[in-house]
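User: Sequence recovery, please. Input:
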């Protein structure tokens, strides 16, 4: 197998795993199920990714460019004390993630983040602590500078509540259960304004 073909197979497995983990969760997923989704032999999955945890972490490492884009936008804000700084921070926080929602294949990763963020066992895996928490600390400090004078604990909880709103937006299934329309054209603007208002007036 050539290096190009091998890289292609790795990506096929990675994309299949992203979908299966998003659907079934970490504990409900098996390497055999991923192999079936990728239409490859189980031995090939194990050859490229030696364990389920290694494959799971590899998905988030591959998608780390999303968090890098969020940080790049945050760091590009010229003045965190400006009147519209909160709006700029919120754009940096949500926009690179919302881009994923437009592509069906990319949307599986957004749904996987929703799964992982809500899984009580996530602290047993080196995903949130290693790949998300360093970014979280930068956003928390930006909130602190843009919104000075809030009580102790506000900035950390405000970040986590914002994560909840953002990750929940990855799936329209609940909205479709509640109404006959998904209102997708309104979702992104509503999310930004909701998070901004919660930060300003929370």
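Assistant: Recovered sequence (202 residues):
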């Amino acid at each position: 197998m050539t290096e190009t073909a091998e890289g292609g197979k790795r990506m096929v497995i990675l994309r299949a795993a992203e979908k299966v983990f998003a659907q079934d969760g970490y504990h409900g997923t098996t390497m055999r199920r991923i192999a079936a989704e990728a239409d490859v032999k189980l031995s090939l999955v194990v050859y490229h990714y030696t364990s389920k945890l290694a494959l799971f972490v590899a998905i988030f490492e591959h998608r780390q460019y999303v968090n890098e884009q969020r940080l790049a936008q945050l760091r590009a804000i010229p003045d965190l004390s400006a009147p519209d700084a909160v709006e700029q921070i919120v754009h940096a926080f949500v926009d690179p993630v919302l881009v994923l929602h437009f592509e069906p294949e990319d949307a599986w990763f957004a749904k996987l983040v929703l799964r992982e963020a809500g899984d009580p066992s996530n602290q047993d895996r080196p995903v949130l602590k290693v790949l998300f928490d360093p970014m979280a600390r930068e956003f928390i400090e930006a909130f602190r500078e843009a919104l000075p004078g809030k009580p102790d604990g506000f900035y950390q909880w405000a970040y986590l509540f914002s994560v909840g709103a953002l990750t929940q937006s990855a799936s329209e299934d609940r909205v479709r259960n509640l109404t006959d329309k998904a209102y997708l054209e309104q979702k992104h603007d509503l999310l930004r304004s909701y998070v901004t208002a919660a930060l300003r007036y929370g």
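The first helix runs from residue 3 to 28.
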